[in-house]
Design brief:
With 160 residues, this protein is an alpha+beta fold. The chain folds into 2 domains: 93 residues, no CATH class; 59 residues, no CATH class. Helices cover 39% and strands 19% of the residues. The protein is built from 8 helices and 7 strands. It has a 3-stranded antiparallel beta sheet. Helix 2 crosses helix 3. The protein is elongated.
């Protein structure tokens, strides 16, 4: 459904869909609280599942991805807890080894500075915690009010 509205271009003497054509909604548009609201993705929820739950069709998953400027769901969509645990265990020999140190403002500091500040005013961040923070930062997205799904799709098509 997403690429059906995209223009065709000639590539290697054949007509193909211009997959590089992209529409990014403006922040002013996305800040409209009548059209959009914040949503926390549930563990294991895919864009397709969420689109079906909200809009009645999994084919509208691209709307969620477009609104949130997500190009690669493998990098920009939160992993399920199961996938996250596998990812961390494959990435690190020791998931609970120190990844880095932070001061009380959350700024990264070196080990010597961490030792001089002490644990009262600084923290050591383990690999698991570091990756968990990154994954958790992807949970909160914007969703389009279902009443406006068809209007959004028509506007999207007209902008292409």
């Amino acid at each position: 459904m997403y690429f059906e509205s995209h223009p065709l271009i000639t590539y290697d003497n054949e007509k193909v869909v211009d997959i590089f054509k992209k529409i990014i909604p403006s922040n002013q548009y996305l800040d409209n609280t009548i059209l959009f609201e914040l949503y926390d993705i549930v563990d294991g929820e895919s864009p397709e599942n969420l689109a079906y739950k909200l809009y009645g069709s999994s084919e509208y998953h691209w709307v969620l991805l477009t609104i949130n400027n997500i190009v690669d769901i493998n990098k920009n969509w939160p992993m399920s807890q199961r996938d996250f645990n596998v990812y961390v265990s494959e990435k690190y020999n020791d998931p609970y080894q120190i990844h880095h140190y932070e001061d009380s403002d959350g700024d990264i500091i070196d080990k010597d500075e961490w030792e001089s500040l002490g644990s009262v005013t600084s923290n050591s961040i383990e690999n698991y915690s570091y990756e968990e923070l990154i994954n958790n930062n992807k949970v909160n997205i914007k969703i389009l009010n279902p009443d406006y799904i068809m209007e959004f799709i028509e506007n999207f098509k007209s902008l292409l």
